[in-house]
């Protein structure tokens, strides 16, 4: 059976809160919901974009730390059409490539505001709490409750 949702965790898990996307992906993988396929993309998400990868994806949720000038742990849905509204550690070329390759799928980008992105293998408490809440929202299909990022 094909997955209903694909979740890609992006980040660097030795740079503190920058690893929040990987944390979410690992937790979802551990829970093994049958309707969710998880990929841990780390800091090279562009390596996972190809015609063969994208052809069967109908709903793709990307989770990453994002500098959005919000309080730490804040979550926002980020428009894939207006990626300049936040700062990612990944180039905008990744989002352009994804937009080009994912024309047939619903693309949802979830950014979590980091508290710290220095060398550390742990998430800050606020970001860990947000990540756990996001996992519950993904599992229960409540991503629409996350407010959009507005400029």
The CATH class turns out to be Alpha Beta
- Poorly predicted ranges: none
Query: Under the CATH scheme, which architecture would be assigned?
Result: 3-Layer(aba) Sandwich
Number of DSSP strand runs: 5
Number of domains: 1
Largest sheet: 5 strands, mixed
How far apart are the first and last residues' alpha carbons, in Å?
39 Å
How many helices in DSSP terms? 4
Radius of gyration: 14 Å
User: Which class best fits the helix and strand makeup?
Assistant: alpha/beta
Order of helices and strands: EHEHEEHEH
Spatial shape: globular
Question: Strand sequence of the main sheet, in spatial order?
Answer: 2-1-3-5-4
Could you list some keywords that capture this structure?
single chain; 151 residues; alpha/beta; Rossmann fold; 4 helices; 21% strand; globular
Compact description:
With 151 residues, the chain is of the alpha/beta class. The chain has four helices and five strands. It has a single domain, classed as HybD-like (Rossmann fold), CATH 3.40.50.1450.
């Amino acid at each position: 059976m094909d997955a209903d949702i694909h979740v890609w965790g992006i980040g660097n898990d030795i740079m503190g809160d920058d690893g929040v996307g990987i944390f979410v992906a690992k937790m979802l993988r551990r829970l093994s919901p049958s309707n969710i396929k998880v990929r841990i993309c780390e800091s090279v998400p562009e390596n996972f974009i190809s015609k063969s990868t994208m052809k069967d994806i109908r709903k793709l949720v990307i989770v990453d730390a994002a500098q959005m000038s919000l309080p730490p742990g804040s979550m926002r849905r980020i428009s894939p059409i207006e990626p300049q509204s936040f700062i990612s550690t990944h180039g905008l070329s990744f989002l352009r490539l994804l937009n080009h390759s994912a024309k047939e799928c619903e693309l949802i980008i979830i950014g979590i505001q980091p508290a710290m992105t220095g060398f550390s293998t742990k998430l800050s408490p606020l970001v860990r709490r947000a990540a756990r809440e996001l996992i519950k929202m993904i599992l229960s299909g409540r991503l629409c409750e996350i407010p959009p990022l507005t400029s």
